[in-house]
Inverse folding.
């Protein structure tokens, strides 16, 4: 382990506009309705954020049958199947949808393709909440999930089938490009999104990691094990010159043995991880090394998403 350490901070990193909006929705709902406010699934994939909201009065539940009829419920940023708001309406629950607008865009695309007579191919990771929510926008059997190029080779559609594809918003840009290329090679008439589905924040964070990974001996990604975009950042670092890349949730997760012979540390945070956790890791490094910090920003982000009307000042309860 060396005495001096150069920390290279990737920028952009951390919270994206969709995560900012989702957290603010829960906070505004608590202000408007008072605690408890129920949240279906983790509002975003970060334990620190979820625990902070719990302390303010948010109650995490798996499904709507755990929500009392007289309390509001917020749907997570990852999106929910159509059956969820339908059930909330049937029960006359007050609900606020915190689905990221970029995920909602994919939902609308899938619905449009289905109405136009297309079978929809979804590129994504099985079991991820966003994939469950997107699949749940269409009737059973109207969408097929592919995760790899090999999955594309196994697709068996009728020769006259009308096809379209959409993607999960938090995928690896490079791997998804390979899958799209395989789809278009097999099905030349498959309809593509009008604009790429992978969200701007996922793309920007991956590009930032790519730009600094070759110069680093160690790369740490602050994120959650169930965070798709955070896992992709670890993969991107490893594929772009820094094999010694790891995900941590907090500074106390660091294995300081990783630092043996390390002179340059790359550091970033997934889109659900707050900047306070980045500062925590930097402080832990300062306590052990003569550490310097340099930020390298590849692009500036100015995206903002509006709050739902129900939470704006003056809106009826």
């Amino acid at each position: 382990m060396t005495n001096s350490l150069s920390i290279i901070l990737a920028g952009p990193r951390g919270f994206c506009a969709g995560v900012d909006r989702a957290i603010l929705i829960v906070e505004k709902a608590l202000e408007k309705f008072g605690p408890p406010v129920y949240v279906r699934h983790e509002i975003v994939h970060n334990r620190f954020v979820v625990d902070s909201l719990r302390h303010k009065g948010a109650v995490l539940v798996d499904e709507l049958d755990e929500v009392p009829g007289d309390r509001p419920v917020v749907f997570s940023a990852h999106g929910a199947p159509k059956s969820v708001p339908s059930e909330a309406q049937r029960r006359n629950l007050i609900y606020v949808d915190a689905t990221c607008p970029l995920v909602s865009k994919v939902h609308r695309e899938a619905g449009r393709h289905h109405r136009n007579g297309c079978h929809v191919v979804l590129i994504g990771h099985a079991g991820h909440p966003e994939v469950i929510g997107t699949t749940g926008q269409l009737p059973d059997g109207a969408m097929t999930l592919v995760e790899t190029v090999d999955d594309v080779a196994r697709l068996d559609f009728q020769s006259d089938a009308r096809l379209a594809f959409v993607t999960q918003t938090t995928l690896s840009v490079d791997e998804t490009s390979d899958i799209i290329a395989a789809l278009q090679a097999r099905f030349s008439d498959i309809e593509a999104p009008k604009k790429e589905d992978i969200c701007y924040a996922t793309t920007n964070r991956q590009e930032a990691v790519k730009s600094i990974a070759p110069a680093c001996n160690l790369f740490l990604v602050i994120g959650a094990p169930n965070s798709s975009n955070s896992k992709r950042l670890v993969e991107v670092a490893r594929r772009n010159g820094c094999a010694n890349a790891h995900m941590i949730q907090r500074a106390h997760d660091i294995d300081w043995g990783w630092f043996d012979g390390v002179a340059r540390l790359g550091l970033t945070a997934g889109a659900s991880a707050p900047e306070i956790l980045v500062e925590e890791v930097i402080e832990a490094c300062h306590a052990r090394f003569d550490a310097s910090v340099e930020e390298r920003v590849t692009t500036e982000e100015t995206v903002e998403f509006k709050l739902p009307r129900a939470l704006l000042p003056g809106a009826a309860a």
Q: What stands out?
A: The first strand starts at residue 4 and ends at 11.
